[in-house]
Amino acid sequence: MQNKVWPKAILVMVSLLFAIALVNIVGASDSDMAITSNVQKKLQNDIQLVDSKIDVEAKDGEVTLSGTVSSDEDIARATELARSINGVKMVDNRLKKVIGPGHYCPDGPSIAWSC
After folding, report:
1. Strands (DSSP E) along 15-73, which ranges?
2. In the predicted structure, residue 11 carries a pLDDT above the cut 60
3. Which of 1, 18, 59, 105 is the most exposed place for a label (fewest CB within 10 A)?
4. pTM over cut 0.90
């Protein structure tokens, strides 16, 4: 009789662990989708960023901003707005400043000229 109980108990435990893992995966993606949506809305509704083209991605509460803006102030503003969203743990700002059609400002403080 004992030999028949153990396989069932193991099957139940494995099924339970699988269900818990699945709930955690689905919950995380729902949360990231909500964070992405909320950051996008916040950025789109900000008058300072109206001419910006910003893409937003979130994974495990870490938000990545990419795209183009017209000033250093816009880069800082986008970061500030993204950080203000509930659930955001970190913001990786990869925004580039545009000085004209198709012209990007160089990165790094060692450049002698500025945009």
Report:
1. 53-59, 62-69
2. yes
3. 1
4. no
